[in-house]
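Figure-free illustration: sequence to structure, shown twice.
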Amino acid sequence: MYELAQELVAEVPFLQGIPVMLIRILLGIISGALVLTFISILGIVLVWLERKVSAHMQDRLGPMRVGGWHGWSQTIADGIKLLLKEDIIPAAADRLLFKLAPVLVFAGALAIYVAIPFGDGVIASDLNIGLFYILAISSLGVLGILMAGWASNNKWALLGAMRSAAQVVSYEIPVALALLSVIPLVGTLSMQEIIAAQDGGFHRWFIFRNPFTFVGFFLYFISSLAEVNRTPFDIPEAESELVAGYHTEYSGMRFSFFFIAEYGAMTAVSIVAATVFLGGWQAPWGGSFPGGFIWIVGKGFFLVFIQMWIRWTVPRMRVDQLMYVGWKVLTPATFICMIGSVVWAFTAPNWLDLLGSVFLMGVMAIVLVFLLRSAAHGLMEGRSQRAQTA
């Protein structure tokens, strides 16, 4: 941001008398406003998409009748309703912490996007420790969740908050280790440089570099579901046990902050996965044509769709199962991937690296065909059942 401010002062005549620091602050404010607008619109789009995905997954109707194409304005109507609803604070609640908690959760999700590159040079702050910053700032949300549960003076909300703290602390370790399996291959924590190291086509993406980064991608994706409280790791807000978990006592716009923050965090972890493992804003054939923003958002949205798919097809885990998977399955597996990736990178010959990439692409093609066949089979069964009932 400082370099951009210097360039603007040097090249734009009417800015030459303005201090560089002031230009830098203004650029920061503009970047923050753009990111805030992006997340707000993103929340509306993803709420509508989740309704439609769940409807197709479970063979029922999603929003269809409230104006526009496939009921797209239903989510806008719900947003207006939340704005107009009464803001209720329990009498025995800690009012200051109760009000601060949703802001803190939303700020944690918002701050991640500062270090995410949306194109070649399109980044709010190109930190040389960008990946480390993302891992650190993403932990801010759990503090807000704990604050919400404690301040509500509700045993169900507090129980959900404690579950979330245990879950996030447990799954931060495999998330970080899975991402670290890539760092020895590129030698930097800068998000832009990580993407630059994957230039040259999809066979250069880190998911295809060696078998350990291939497995590391899936371990990261599974662990990230727990980080953002998505099924099958949604026990902090399990409605069948805790009413609504840590945000039980929230209503109106404060509740929507939690809601938007969840979808913002879902997209953030997906875009981080696309950046680190799937080439970021680069096209599958190399470069960013026809637009880096389209590629990275497209990859991120595809992973968000997989998250929604999992939510409506996989049952929720118990608390003991969640802890077992985190500490005894994912953490050892990511340790192996991190160490194996380093050993493979420095010992495997080039022909073996290429052979491993071809093998992994074949495995992915088989898995994709299997998933498409399963989806088509389920769709045909749903149609036949509807025909029989009709």
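We now fold a second protein in the same way, so the two outputs can be compared directly.
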Amino acid sequence: MRDAIPNRRRLAGGLAVAAFLLVLTIVGVAAVPQVIGAKGSYVVLSSSMSPTIDAGDVVVVRDADPSAIETGDVITYRSPTDADRRVTHRVVAVQSWDGGPAFRTKGDANEEADAALVPAENVVGVVWFHIPLVGYLLQFASSTVGIALLVVVPAVLLVVTELRDLYRAATTVTDEERATETPPGQREE
């Protein structure tokens, strides 16, 4: 019975390490998708693709030849009306426009297709997969409070613990030093 407790602790420790590594891998892939061959990743800010992709999810996008994009594919593209905005919607029709393909898109949760056609040059890529809820963590980590809690506070704690350890090392008397000390009441001559 006594052997079961250390085994449970080892198992719990192993599971904790595995869970930590899994979370670290997921966040790493979302933050730096190029490590797995993806073109980029984007935090989904709206529920227009629900229930397929929800707000707070991260979409990981692969590069795609626009001529290979078909109806039903989910693409991420630069908005035709705001080049700084990225949109992830499903292709509902492929049309010819200005000598190349253009895409009619629609969010799965939306009643109607998007008003503007998406020209091929606006396509960032095809959604390869999505990671639920990680977008909330990434948004928090990039906020002022998130940076303070995830970077500044741990850095300060590291410095404080290192200074404490240095102080202890400088003020602690070792056994060897004790052996060479003169006992109280005796003088060295």
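Summary for the second example: The chain has a mean pLDDT of 89.
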